[in-house]
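ok so I'm stuck.
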Amino acid sequence: MGVTLTESAARHVARYLERRGKGVGLRLGVKTTGCSGMAYKLEYADEVQPDDLQFESHGVRVIIDPKSLPYIEGTELDFVREGLNEGFKFNNPNVKSECGCGESFNV
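replied:
not stuck anymore, here's the structure
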């Protein structure tokens, strides 16, 4: 199943990588933090590690470390604009609860 990007998210990532002038894709993972237990880590990847898992969505590579995959398997990453705000939105089917501020989640 892996992790997918919407067309909007893929366009945003591709544009950013092009402006940056380097990078092989988007690295997505989780870290232990926050009031609900876990938070997403999102960064542009310049290289792929030997144990990384890779998925492609709308022409953009999504790179995930194996320890994070069970927590984000099946996630769809979207890029949304709401009024003056814009950013990534995680549609993760594994989430059981989220903190009130929206910064962390529990599976």
